[in-house]
Amino acid sequence: MDLRTLGNSGTIVSAFALGTMTFGAEADESTSHAILDRYVDAGGTLIDTADVYSAGASESIIGRWLARNHGARDRLVVATKARFPMGEGSNDLGLSRTHLRKALDDSLRRLGVDQIDLYQMHAWDALTPLEETLRFLDDAVTAGKIGYYGFSNYLGWQLTKAVAVADGYGFVAPVTLQPQYSLLVRGIEHEIVPAALDSGIGLLPWSPLAGGWLSGKYRRDEAPTGATRLGENPKRGMEAFDARNADPRTWEVIDAVQTVAEETGASMSQVALAWLVDRPAVSSVILGARTIEQLDDNLAAADLELSDEQRSRLDEVSTPRTEVYPYGPQAVAQRHRKREGGR
Fold first, then answer.
1. Is residue 336's pLDDT more than 80?
2. Alpha-helical segments (H) within the chain
């Protein structure tokens, strides 16, 4: 597996990370531990979780695995997140110092570690002053409770503001941003990717297979059933079946992925992951597997090299849709100028 720096830090991570949202929910503890074993054996080094995943169960499962695998801790980069509710109280959520102090200590306890390598703010908090959140994170780095910090689900302006505020106050700078990103969800390329490139922030894309859509498991106009996320809940979040099924672009992208898969002898999942892992600013792509078989298939993307022509086809069919302004071709041209002058 390729190795890369974690954003603008000097820490090295594998190009594919292991997402553990399934732990304690779709994967029981024995399956979760088997997935961790297989991932590490394949050369993976970045494990991503969150306190809200299965109400803390995901962190606890990882913590018990780390305790049983002596020496693994030193070879791995452990990342978790905080922001969403972990209780019913008014201060049981958000990015305030009050909540983050307890959330961080609880995550350290569940994971059984002295330091969290990458502590991520799971979403923007409009109620808490940004300075308060960043000062807490700077203090946590100084105290040795976290190594680095980053964000998840931030917009471009939010990321840029956070970087500027941290710099202005002399706080430790953020290193990563975790956004949704895939061949079906490329809107972040308008503002978020340029903001990340400008600040040296590394992207850790989540849902790289668009909730399973890019694996080829769903069929046009056939409502999913069975033991899949949409089979169990067809209206599930941003991946809901009806909306994506009704969009012709969904099937144009899926058809293109299938064609490339047939040309390369790879699975559709491997094609989608191979395309994403080499996008600008990407540090590591987060894989979410509920079974060993899914993980093995995804990890094989590390050995798949798409041709320039195949990448171009995938780029073209999945080009993010835009309004004429401010993202259409003429509007983009307004943001550049010729050296020789003139229009």
1. yes
2. 29-41, 57-68, 72-75, 97-111, 130-142, 156-169, 188-199, 229-232, 241-245, 248-264, 268-277, 292-299, 308-318, 324-327, 329-333
DSSP secondary structure of 101-124: HHHHHHHHHHHT-S-EEEEEE-S-
**CB contact burial 116-153 (16+ within 10 A = b; e otherwise):** bbbbbbbbbbeebebeebbbbbbbbbeeebbbbbbbbb
Q: Largest Cα–Cα distance of the chain, in whole Å?
A: 67
Residues 64 and 32: beta-carbon distance below 8 Å: no
Of 101, 116, 202, which Cα lies nearest the Cα of 159?
Answer: 202
pLDDT band of residue 343 (cuts 50, 70, 90) is low
Q: Enter the pTM of the model.
A: 0.95
126 contact partners, CB below 8 Å, separation of at least 6: none
Mean pLDDT of 81-94: 96
SS3 308: helix
- Average pLDDT for 134-141: 98
Res 227 pLDDT > 80: no
Tokens of 297: 């298939």
Q: Which of 244, 218, 245, 223 is nearest to 234 (CA)?
A: 223
* Residues involved in catalysis: 53
SS3 328: coil
Half-sphere exposure of 243 (CA within 13 A, CB side): 8
